[in-house]
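G., before I forget:
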Amino acid sequence: MSEGGTRDRTADTADEQTADGMVYLVGSGPGDPELLTVAARRLLDEADVILHDKLPGPDILEDIDSERREDVGTRGHGDRTPQSYVNERMVELVRDGKTVVRLKGGDPTVFGRGGEEMRYLADHGVRFEVVPGVTSAIAGPAVAGIPVTHRDHASSVTFVTGHEDPTKPESAVDWEAIAATGGTIVVLMGVTRLPEYRDALVDAGMDPETPAALVERATWPDQQVATGTLETIVDACDEVGIEPPAVTVIGEVAKTRDDVVAFMHQNHV
Ligand code: SAH
């Protein structure tokens, strides 16, 4: 992050190929601008171009002047910008000598294709740096009063994508193995398929009474929380009207909220 910081051994080779340009893969945190890191804040102020999607949220995006930002989430490319476009655009800008921030919600390496982008940049001789962010996988539950680990209830936590259909045999997620950990389960991208993976966990032997919660738009002004058990959580979400983006947290820790919520201050400002 700082000029005097340790440089990767490959950086010198990359320098030769990409002039002065550079890519910063930056996490925006869950959405509250106060949860940007100091490095993220500085890079957003200084970068020539910021490539982003919608996940960083309006409060962060509206603060960046529009001529420096490019929405690579939707703009002009149908529903989603192909990953190949984002990759090629980063390289093109760097070869033009630009400092590029690739801004991603939460932490750039947690279900954010950060790994794919790092690999692409390295393959194309582009110098880059990763600026970690506050992931919604931990912050989402936390701001709702749910610690993902707890000395008495959970000594492990599993982060899992809820994007895949658990009823399909080719699903890469082993819900049975996840259920067997006995620890906390945090599901990202897991609103639409909640009924399916809930069933998969119960079929795998988890107690239907296991506490569960969904936290939508954690740290945004319109944050919403639904709580219940594996048995009741689908109805609870319908009642509250939970929509993506939301994190699902399953495990004994989820009931901590009930004990503390009365004393929780929602926004720190
Ligand atoms: N890199 C991100 C995750 C990207 S995957 C991170 O570290 O947070 C997108 C998923 O992240 C969403 O479907 C949702 O499950 C979760 N998510 C991101 N921001 C969120 C927020 N503010 N509140 C709740 N869930 C969020």
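The longest strand covers residues 22-27. The chain has two domains: 3-134, 137-268.

More on Monday.
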